[in-house]
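Subgroup meeting minutes
Present: P.N., E.W., G.H.
Scribe: E.W.

1. P.N. recapped why we're keeping a running log of single-chain structure predictions: easier to compare across weeks, and new members can see raw inputs and outputs side by side.
2. G.H. added today's entry (107 aa).
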Amino acid sequence: MKSQFALAALVTAAGFVSAQAASDDAWKEFARVVEQKCLAAANGMIEAPKAVVDPFGSEKFGLAIVTGKAKGARVQISHICVMDKQTKAVELGGELGPDMLKLTLPK
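Output recorded in log:
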């Protein structure tokens, strides 16, 4: 009886580890898609944009902050980027200048 319980516990744990790994991969892919779409959306406004992505977003949206040098200017700007998780449609918020938001990107 103990060995059956141990076997059942082992099978359950193995399934959890497998599901957890798939979930981690899915979240990494989600963050990659949010980053790609947000960078593309900011392409006309920011030279060499960079994105900081919330790895999980909200219940309905992928979230990121896109930042970089404003096209044709010397000032750093940022935009909040929102991606609908179902439709994958992306929208950028208004321009946030350095007086409104200071952002340090990891290297």
